[in-house]
Design brief:
heterodimer, A: 264 residues, alpha/beta, Rossmann fold, six-stranded mixed beta sheet, 10 strands, globular, B: 261 residues, mainly alpha, MetI-like fold, binds adenosine-5'-diphosphate, binds magnesium ion
């Protein structure tokens, strides 16, 4: 029980020798924990998630799920991709998209589970529409429903709220926190939004600019349940936000400095 | 009111054109009686004779059965092989040169060899039809399978689909629009090969019927046979388009939005 569900042990990855993307990334996630990884755009967050999902293997280091190494995605892992509109099957209705990963169970149970997942993301009314008939926020919820319907233990979210409007974003944040707590999921959220990371997570992992490594891990002890207004106004939230902000800004300045060096 | 008239106009013109062509033919047939220029009544009578009675069973049905079997084999083989080659790219370098060469052989050229191989049998004719029409399907399936959105394949991997499941549940539907385009071309080639295969050492089928009536100077029957083949081609194409409209409804909506947005 106390064994971490995910361990990143000095993971490095490069698409080409000249441009390393990940450099010695190490952190771990306990079962049931909500971890947010913050890093600037292009720093390699998606690459890291693809290594964690075993969609590709790191060059060095290890990704351990419950202490085991995987060459294919572990059965208890689910992922919501950043490009949600490309990750839904355009030839399947919302209902069938959600049911995509459910096999080897009888039809009645499958229908029930799909219905439950659709309810969890408030999408029952759109079950028979096609993904391309939905708004961005609804597509994202459809992708979310598809990944929770298989009852995973570890859920990876790749900037799931990056391209929706502010109000939708807030609704989605509440929805995701609610689902993760109810299903006692271990969730790994990747984002470039500092407020979002601090607001949602038990632990924030700050990544540097490329090649990405872990700058600092920050425990977030804000009480649950969290509220968009009261939590975000609490001194503890502001303190943590300040701390993460400073780290990220420091990274950005270092990056700018390095660029100036290169130009000289 | 005006919109309605504009809608009707092309249809009226089409009817007029056809009527004018038929009238011209009939005028020529009546004023210059010749064995190679039968009147419309005679052609129509021959046409109707083909669709009921003995001729239905000795001409149309044998042709259609060969067409159906050959075309079905072509579509099945083309899809299965094409999707595998398109998806399992490692296989491609091995098989691609052979394919690229084979597709330049006009299907007609295979006819004498097929006759030697199988004799003047139905197997030979089905083979020729399948050989001729398999390539458009095959190449379209390869092309479609290659252009599957990579993210969808990753979703399939995360959902732990086996490779056959990925082919059937992701690659096939994604390649469907491309496959249908290939199948439409294949259908017209299959019709051509059906007729040609029945011109050699046959004793039934539409091709045989046309050839025999030509030798007997039954010109009206020759034209009736030609028109029958045209009818079959038209009906099959319409059926295919209707099927495509159903199966690819999602694709029109999806692409329509992509173009608009
Ligand atoms: N398949 C790939 N091949 C080569 N380079 C890639 C590939 N995928 C991503 N990259 C590069 O790796 C870097 C990090 O990408 P990514 O992991 O998507 O960053 P993030 O998700 O943090 O924005 C980018 O500079 C990107 O251009
Ligand atoms: Mg990314």
């Amino acid at each position: 029980m106390n064994e971490p569900i995910l361990v990143m042990d000095a993971v490095s990855k490069a698409y080409s020798a000249a441009a390393p993307i990940l450099k010695d990334i190490s952190f771990s996630q306990k079962a049931g924990e909500f971890v947010a990884v913050v890093g600037p755009s292009g720093c390699g967050k998606t690459t890291m998630l693809r290594c964690i999902a075993a969609l590709m293997q790191p060059d060095q280091g290890q990704v351990l799920h419950n202490g085991m190494h995987f060459f294919d995605p572990p059965p208890w892992l689910s992922i919501v991709f950043q490009d949600y509109n490309r990750s839904l099957f355009p030839w399947l209705s919302v209902r069938r998209n959600v049911a995509f990963g459910l096999r080897d169970i009888d039809k009645r149970e499958r229908d029930e589970r799909v219905q439950t997942a659709l309810q969890a993301v408030a999408l029952e009314h759109a079950a028979d529409l096609y993904p391309w008939q939905l708004s961005g926020g609804m597509q994202q919820r459809c992708a979310l429903a598809r990944s929770i319907v298989v009852q995973p233990k570890l859920l990876l979210l790749d900037e799931p709220f990056a391209s929706v409007d502010a109000q939708t974003r807030i609704d989605l944040q509440d929805m995701v926190m609610d689902i993760c707590k109810k299903m006692s999921l271990s969730t790994l959220l990747v984002t470039h939004d500092i407020d979002e990371a601090v607001f949602m997570a038990d632990k924030v992992v700050v990544l540097s600019t490329r090649p990405a490594h872990v700058v600092e891990e920050i425990a977030v002890d804000l009480p649950w349940p969290r509220d968009q207004l009261t939590t975000k106004e609490s001194p503890e939230f502001l303190r943590l936000r300040h701390r993460v902000y400073t780290l990220v800004r420091h990274q950005a300045q270092k990056h700018a400095g390095a660029n100036r060096e290169e130009l000289k | 009111m005006t919109a309605k008239r504009n809608h009707i106009a092309p249809f009226v013109w089409q009817i007029c054109t056809i009527a004018a062509l038929l009238a011209l033919w009939q005028w020529a047939a009546l004023n210059h009686p010749a064995p190679h220029l039968p009147t419309l009544q005679n052609i129509a009578a021959g046409y109707l004779r083909l669709w009921h009675g003995d001729l239905l069973f000795t001409a149309i049905i044998p042709s259609m059965s060969r067409l159906a079997v050959g075309f079905f084999i072509a579509v099945a083989v083309g899809c299965v092989l094409g999707l595998m080659l398109g998806y399992l790219r490692e296989l491609d370098p091995w098989i691609r040169p052979v394919l690229e060469y084979l597709r330049f052989i006009p299907a007609v050229a295979i006819l004498p060899a097929a006759l030697l191989l199988f004799g003047p049998t139905d197997t030979m004719r089905v083979f020729v039809i399948a050989f001729g029409s398999v390539f458009p399907v095959l190449l379209a399936a390869i092309d479609g399978a290659r252009r599957v959105e990579p993210l969808l394949l990753e979703v399939a991997r995360v959902e732990r689909l086996t490779i056959p499941e990925r082919l059937f549940r992701v690659v096939l539907p994604a390649a469907m629009p491309s496959i249908f385009a290939g199948v439409r071309i294949a259908l017209s080639i299959a019709l051509v090969m059906m007729v040609i295969s029945e011109l050699i050492a046959a004793d039934n089928g539409l091709g045989f019927y046309i050839l025999r009536n030509q030798r007997l100077f039954q010109t009206a029957n020759v034209y009736a046979g030609v028109l029958t083949i045209g009818t079959i081609g038209l009906v099959l194409t319409l059926a295919l388009l209707a099927l495509e409209k159903r199966v690819l409804a999602w694709h029109r909506g999806w692409r329509g939005l992509a173009n608009a947005g």
